[in-house]
Amino acid sequence: MTDGTKGSTSRAASALSRIPLYNRFRDQAGVWETLRASWLWIFLAVLLLAVGWMLVKPAPPGKVVIATGSKDGAYHWFAQQYAQSFKDNGLALDVRETQGSIENYRLLSEPTDGKSDAEVVSVAIVQSGTAPPGDHSDLRSIASLYLEPVWIFHRGDPVTTLPQLAGKRLAAGPEGSGTRSIVERLLAANTLPWTSDPKATASGTTPIRFDPRSGRAAADALKAGELDAIALVLSPRHPLIAELLHEPGVRLMSFEHHEAYARVFPFLSDVKLPRGTIDLARNLPSEDVYLLAPAANLVCREDLHPSIVILLLKAATRAHERGDLLSRAGELPSTRFVEFPVDTSAAEYFRSGPPFLQRYLPFWAAALVDRMKILLLPLLTLILPLARIAPPLMVWRIRSRIYRWYRVLREIDRRLRLEVTGEAASTAAALDPRRFDDDIATLVEMEKELSEEKVPLSYMQEFYNLRLHTDFLLRKLEDRVGRQGGIDMNWGGMPPD
After folding, report:
1. How many CB atoms lie within 10 A of CB 208?
2. Most-buried pick from 51, 316, 425, 459 (CB within 10 A)?
3. Alpha-carbon distance 271 to 313, whole Å?
4. Burial class (CB within 10 angstroms; exposed 0-12, middle 13-18, buried 19+) of 312
């Protein structure tokens, strides 16, 4: 191509670029070309969004039911503290009173078909070692909360092994209770028989005779000599413990094989109660005592929402991390002394602490972001083509607004040209003076709209060209109908220079 040809081509392209209609078609072609190049990305992103939406985790339930124990028991009292933590985070924890661990397991195993969250027991506080026989594959351990020793108080000579209780009257609570369940497992490990028949004859070779009394009733019967021994599962700070240690003729059993029991039963901890721990002034107990301690466990259904698990753990940590007479600060809650597989979210909590989002965001915000994070990839995929499309779309939209007014100018100019050249003889409507009055009114209204229109600075040249062309055509119309003047170009109320 010669230099002359190149110059002609360049001048032609430059001339075309000054034609608004040509620029309009060029802009529209660029938009459609960008759309065609990006449609596959958009389709894939929308598909990923749809799949991601189906995989989004459900929102945490607004209400959770926890089974505890008697209203005056420790389980119920601690659950009330958890409930306050839930309330502070905008959720409700319904604390349900029960008969104890055995009933709690039954409630956790009930079918949920057709029941709302407010009707289903999703989590419970239970005593470790009390799970009834059967399939518990649908249960998960969240944490062990604190230790509850097995206290065996007896009359007579010192007792250090369970076989020494053969033939004795032992109160360990009603059949099916948590305390009774623990004691039966300990007796079975020693191949000791037992019976619930109160008429069985006392003998060193006869079974241990269980009495259904528990708590205060059992303690009073022991002090009155109606029983030979009682088994209690209580906190060291419970008033009954200090009361029985003060009672003349009543002794506390120290387990001789405490370490062996802890190895055989992983849900048990062997703990040492140093002398004077219960009452320093009276030096009670008067010597070191070795006890076996099951743990209060937080157990849930396997489908409990992960955010609820974390919220329970945060509440439990605040309630129990300070320690007590049997555990040091920070030892509990933990995943020790549990009976079921540890919930995945709970295991991660104990490894790494609370999730990152819940450390810095309110619970509701952290739960929402956690649910939506699976949509981040398709959203990022969608943003890429949209970012490519947005600029040409913006150009096309702004110029289309300008070209809309140019169509009005072109139609008015066509009628005026027909009248001037005399070509409107066959188009009487074009010669109607009232028609020009209407056109003038249209241009005046158009100028008013333009004065109120907001246009980006990069398009002000085209905008001002439109203003000038509008004023130019308006002057021609006014001159044609014998009027003078034009439009005040200082729109917006600004005085002329």
Report:
1. 23
2. 316
3. 24
4. buried
- Which residues lie below 8 Å from residue 497, measured CB to CB, with a gap of 6+? none
* Cα–Cα distance for residue pair 287/274, rounded to 1 Å: 7
pLDDT at position 357, please? 74
Q: What pLDDT, in 10s, does the model give residues 381-422? A: 666 666 666 677 677 777 777 778 888 888 888 887 777 665
> pLDDT tens digit string along 143-184?
999 999 999 999 999 999 999 999 999 999 988 788 999 999
- What distance in Å separates the CA atoms of residue 197 and residue 199, rounded to the nearest whole number? 5
In this structure, are residues 164 and 242 in contact, taking their beta carbons and an 8 Å threshold?
A: no
CA–CA dist 435, 377 (Å, integer):
60
Write the single-letter amino acid at 403: Y
d(CA 156, CA 235): 25
CA distance 10 to 114: 77
* Contact indicator for 249, 155 with CB cutoff of 8 Å: yes
- Per-residue tokens: 195: 């019976």
| Of residues 182, 79, 71, the one with CA closest to residue 124 | 79
Strand duo 250-252 + 208-211: pairing: unpaired
